[in-house]
Automatic annotation (TrEMBL):
Name listed for the protein in its UniProt record: EbsA family protein
One Pfam family, short name: EbsA
Organism: Candidatus Ligilactobacillus excrementigallinarum
UniProt superkingdom: Bacteria
Keywords, in A-Z order: Membrane, Transmembrane, Transmembrane helix
Transmembrane segments: 12-33, 39-58
Length: 125
């Protein structure tokens, strides 16, 4: 089987925290624009930084599924970056796209688009 890649975001609290900091960059660029009242290079530079950070956050987090394991790619590396497929006990999803992967010791949560979540559950079940 080929390696399949599905874009995702971490669990809900982590996603809210990360995206809040990202949106702070955007709001700071808008604040500069309103303070100076003219669109200047500072506003443009912070807007470009926001776009780069948002692109990295969207494309840098994904699940890579192979026959042997499920590997998590994240921006900040943390423990247990991969799960062997035989250790997965169940995989569930809800209608909003939250996928939960249950193992013996832990439950992993990921946010995905609902159609992508459906594909992941079908792939891992």
């Amino acid at each position: 089987m080929k390696t399949k890649k599905y874009y995702s975001q971490p669990d809900v609290p982590t996603s809210i925290t990360c995206w809040s900091f990202t949106w702070m960059i955007f709001l700071f660029s808008m604040l500069l624009w309103l303070e100076i009242t003219v669109f200047q290079v500072w506003t443009l530079s912070f807007l470009i930084v926001f776009l780069i950070v948002a692109f990295i956050e969207l494309k840098g987090r994904y699940l890579q599924i192979t026959n042997e394991k499920v590997k998590f790619h994240a921006l900040i590396i943390y423990n247990n970056q991969e799960i062997e497929r035989e250790k997965i006990q169940s995989v569930t999803r809800n209608k909003w796209g939250v996928v939960k992967i249950h193992t013996e010791n832990e439950t992993y949560e990921f946010l995905m688009m609902p159609k992508t979540a459906k594909k992941v559950v079908a792939e891992l079940s």
